[in-house]
Specification:
Number of helices: 10
Number of strands: 13
CATH topology of the largest domain: Peroxisomal Thiolase, Chain A, domain 1
Bound molecules: oxa(dethia)-CoA
CATH architecture of the largest domain: 3-Layer(aba) Sandwich
Order of helices and strands: EEHHEHEHEHEHEEEEHEHHHEE
Structural class: alpha/beta
């Protein structure tokens, strides 16, 4: 049977940093409130002339380099994003063009903060089916473009960035299992409604506290589902690479897994919530600093707008 495994990782963050102190001069908030409620200290923000495909390109080049492949080896591109440069073409096709590798299939996946897990699961299934051998899977967001910077209960959370992995066919599993879910009953708790007035920007509307509670319970359930599907115990997991929404959500999932926080890859303090980019960004950082090593069992999980949620269990 054909499996897929991560050959290499890469990430990229825009240069501009927005600190909590800077937010204090934009909305009625404090560094103390933001840090104690979310764990966030700062986040990166795109420049005016920088777009999701630019972030995706830099993360992809880093992933290609760390995988020891060339861009021409790639035969599938999937980009998870909520903030494409344009309504169309997709970021994946723009990225393909920037990489100079026209021809292979390239498409975006929209599952908001769960997007990377959805994209990884899709690429894994392409490879298992024999339809691809070397997939570039990216999570990239310029989320700051859809934030209402006057809404203090919301704008303090988000950041921009990109992460990427190269997924290659292998005779050993790499990706052990993936689990995806969605429930549109929760549409209005976290969404970007279309404004009737075209001059008004479409921005994120979120019932933060209600989302928080559903997120914690749902992530508990996906942890149970993933372990049960593989006949594994909590102690079999070496690392948790969670979607970085709020440190308190990460702590709740770690508690569910009886896991110390030093086994949880935390980037929310420096990146904020980068939506679909947060998991591949966190994975790359932990691979680069050699916490996550070849052979380690890594659980990735995410929850986001829709609601959508999912997990991927991998042997790195
Ligand atoms: O990425 C996937 C999905 N998203 C999430 O998972 C996000 C989940 N939600 C959250 O992370 C949290 O709900 C937030 C960080 C968004 C909000 O934290 P909270 O502890 O749920 O606060 P809250 O909305 O219940 O508000 C508590 C109080 C309110 O004041 P009163 O009514 O108690 O007087 C808010 O007005 O805090 C106030 N508040 C703020 N105060 C200072 C809300 N935002 C701020 C702020 N600074 N930035």
């Amino acid at each position: 049977m054909i499996h897929s495994r991560i050959a290499g990782t890469g990430s990229y963050l825009p240069k501009k940093i927005l600190t909590n102190a800077a937010l204090e001069s934009m909305v009625d908030t404090t560094d103390e409130w933001i840090f104690s409620r979310t764990g966030i200290r700062e986040r990166h923000i795109v420049a005016d002339d920088e777009f999701t495909s630019d972030l995706a390109l830099q993360a992809s080049l880093n992933a290609i380099k760390s995988s020891g492949i060339t861009a021409h080896d790639i035969d599938l591109i999937i980009v998870a994003t909520t903030t494409p440069d344009k309504i169309f073409p997709s970021v994946a096709v723009m990225l393909q063009n920037k990489l100079g590798i026209a021809g292979c299939p390239a498409f975006d996946i929209q599952a908001v903060c769960s997007g990377f897990v959805y994209a990884l699961a899709t690429a894994d299934n392409f490879i298992k089916a024999g339809a691809a051998q070397c997939a570039l899977v990216v999570g990239a967001e310029a989320f700051s473009r859809i934030v209402d910077w006057t809404d203090r209960g919301n704008c303090i959370l988000w950041g921009d960035g990109a992460g990427a992995v190269v997924l290659q066919a292998s005779d050993q599993p790499g990706i052990i299992s993936t689990h995806l879910h969605a429930d549109g009953n929760y549409e209005k708790m976290l969404h970007v409604p279309r404004q009737a007035d075209a001059k008004v920007k479409d921005t994120v509307v979120m019932e933060g506290n209600a989302v928080f509670k559903v997120a914690v319970n749902t992530l508990d359930a996906i942890v149970d589902e993933t372990l049960a599907a593989n006949g594994m115990q909590k102690s079999d997991i070496d690392w948790l690479v969670p979607h970085q929404a709020n440190i308190r959500i990460l702590q709740a999932t770690a508690k569910k897994l009886d896991m110390n926080m030093d086994k949880v890859i935390v980037t929310v303090d420096k990146h904020g919530n980068t939506s679909a980019a947060s998991i591949p960004l966190a994975l790359d950082i932990a691979v680069q600093d050699r916490r996550i090593k070849r052979g380690d069992i890594v659980l990735m999980e995410a929850f986001g707008g829709g609601f959508t949620w999912g997990s991927a269990l991998i042997r790195y």
